[in-house]
TrEMBL record:
Keywords: Dioxygenase, Oxidoreductase. The keyword Lyase does not apply. It comes from Thiomonas delicata. Gene3D superfamilies: LigB-like (3.40.830.10). One of its GO terms (molecular function) is protocatechuate 4,5-dioxygenase activity. InterPro entries: PCA_45_Dioxygenase_B (IPR034937), Xdiol_dOase_suB (IPR004183). Its EC number is 1.13.11.8. This is Protocatechuate 4,5-dioxygenase beta chain. The keyword Oxidoreductase applies. Residues 9-278 form the Extradiol ring-cleavage dioxygenase class III enzyme subunit B domain. Pfam families: LigB.
């Protein structure tokens, strides 16, 4: 039996959410509605624990400074430590990788004409650890190995939604050709609308976000044609993080007529958390 993608998960990665968890503030009135939206998700994770998570996220000039900026980077190491982003590493478990599957995906996707940077040592920042905390709570160890897949959405030029969507399709093909019966989830993280800098700091666009969620579910191929400037104009400078969701969506079974439409297991939207609109989806392959 070959490996297969069972589901995709989409979620924001707001660093203040990580701080709220680490400092025991999740029950405070400001935070309670955010975490309430993930209660169902944590139960779903317990009921549907995969063998591996392929976690698409962005590094925030933590592992990759402005000295070196890979567009797409795949973590092939055996483990990854939580990064110190200026106030000490988050008190969360280290991330155990899956070097065999990661190397296989690198082989397949690079031979399919996508340029990936192979990373054999890196620390992982809030872009990766906050989604794990939201979905898994505060366990002593993360429930399964995680392959970190970092996308540059911090320093221009960033990859287009269309390229991300095509990359997702190549990742699905790669996973489907791995000769082991692994259940793999693919996560697309970051977003939703937010801008952290300049005169428009604090921008949130609920109409854009909800239309994005609708179209991500129903017609991701059309959504993938949205130009990057539209994300920046409509969803703020950091709203461009949303192109990462198209990698996960491109890896689902219905894309290119390959299989049935996914089931929407959970959908959640909340404004605001810190400066950011929080969006979350769980889609299951049928
Ligand atoms: C915030 C959101 C982000 O995506 C990020 O990387 C840093 C800060 C915020 O809303 O504060
Ligand atoms: Fe971010």
């Amino acid at each position: 039996m070959m490996a297969r993608i069972t589901a995709s998960v989409y979620t924001s990665h707001v660093p203040a959410i990580g701080a709220a968890i680490d400092l025991g503030k999740t029950a405070e009135p400001y935070w309670q509605p955010v975490f309430a939206g993930y209660e169902k998700s944590k139960q779903w994770m317990r009921d549907n624990t995969p063998d591996v998570i392929f976690l698409v996220y962005n590094d925030h000039a933590t592992a990759f400074s402005l000295e070196m900026i890979p567009t797409f980077a795949i973590g092939c190491a055996a483990e990854f430590q939580p990064a110190d982003e200026g106030w000490g590493p988050r008190p969360v478990p280290k991330v155990i990788g899956h070097p065999e599957l990661a190397s296989h995906i690198a082989q397949s996707v690079i031979q399919d004409d996508f340029d990936l940077t192979i990373v054999n040592k890196m620390d992982v920042d809030h872009g990766l650890t906050v989604p794990l905390s939201l979905m898994c709570g505060q366990p002593a160890a993360w429930p399964c190995p995680v392959i970190p897949f970092a996308v540059n959405v911090v320093q221009y030029p960033v990859p287009s939604g269309r390229r991300c969507f095509m990359l997702g399709q190549a990742i699905r093909k790669a996973i489907a050709s791995f000769d082991a019966p692994l259940k793999v989830q693919i996560w697309g993280t970051g977003g939703m609308s937010h801008q952290l800098q300049g005169p428009r700091a604090g921008l949130i666009n609920q109409e854009f976000d909800n239309a994005f969620l609708d179209q991500l579910i129903a017609d991701p191929a059309a959504l993938s044609n949205k130009p990057h400037i539209d994300y920046v104009r409509e969803a703020g400078s950091e709203g461009i993080e949303l192109v990462m969701w198209l990698i996960a969506r491109g890896a689902m079974a219905d894309v290119n007529g390959a299989g049935a439409k996914p089931t929407v297991r959970h959908r959640f939207y909340h404004v605001p958390a810190s400066n950011t609109a929080v969006g979350h989806l769980i889609l299951e392959n049928n």
